[in-house]
Design brief:
single chain, about 230 residues, alpha/beta, TIM Barrel, eight-stranded mixed beta barrel, 6 helices
């Protein structure tokens, strides 16, 4: 059983939810917020989160949610998870509440550590702390990470679910990666007994075409005004 979904944040701009429904998109994974790469590691709510949640509900799409973490200490992890849980506290989700662990940015100007250069044990402890906090608060948790991070750090923790970016594996846990398609592992259950394969497409082709058309229209309109 294949279920199609979309990774949605302010980076994807405003989504046409009516078109999603018409094109057999069954669910969305919404970014609730993220920790910025500034000196203070400012925590920010995604500016379109409430908009996306409201419209996903209106068009009866299943909804999951994620927060992009930059935590490199348990103290930072606690601050992030408290901030994340506060954003989503009045929301109901059909799909997992997710922590994205993919901080590989070169941030040495602001602070010396990122998640990529942490000791593997420390990164695992930080990630599991946040996952356990999600679970304690009554949500189904999920870890989003890169394929190689999954293999190096998380793979032995088989009781957890993973959303794998840039996967090239065909194991029991994750499926093949193709261009902009992301896969959750096949162990995710849509109900008590039905295992499913869940696909997330970063951007639909239809929305990409629409964006090009809009951009071309703006350029044409600007040139006409100058004549």
């Amino acid at each position: 059983m294949l279920i199609n979904g979309l990774d949605v944040s302010s980076q994807t701009q405003q989504i046409n939810y009516k078109l999603l429904k018409e094109n057999n998109i069954d669910f969305v994974m919404l970014r609730a917020g993220f920790t910025d790469y500034d000196k203070n590691k400012t925590k920010r709510k995604d500016k379109l989160f409430n908009y996306n949640y409201k419209l996903a509900k209106k068009y009866r799409l299943n909804i999951g949610v994620y927060y992009t973490s930059n935590a490199v200490t348990l103290k930072e992890a606690k601050e992030e998870i408290d901030y994340f849980l506060n954003i989503i506290k009045d929301k109901v989700f059909d799909y997992p509440v997710t922590i994205q662990i993919e901080d590989d940015h070169n941030t040495i100007i602001y602070y010396p550590k990122n998640q990529k250069n942490l000791d593997k044990k420390d990164l695992l402890n930080i990630s599991l702390f946040m996952i356990n906090q999600i679970k304690i608060n009554g949500y189904e948790p999920l870890i989003r990470t890169y394929y190689n991070w999954y293999v190096d750090v998380f793979k032995e923790n088989k009781k957890y679910l993973y959303w794998i970016d840039n996967s090239i594996d065909n194991s029991n846990y994750i499926n093949s990666y193709d261009n902009d398609i992301l896969y959750l592992n096949t162990n995710y259950k849509i109900n008590n007994d039905e295992k499913v394969e869940i696909v997330l497409e970063k951007n639909s082709l239809l929305d990409t075409i629409k964006n090009y058309i809009k951009a071309g229209y703006k350029i044409l309109k600007s040139k006409i005004r100058k004549i």
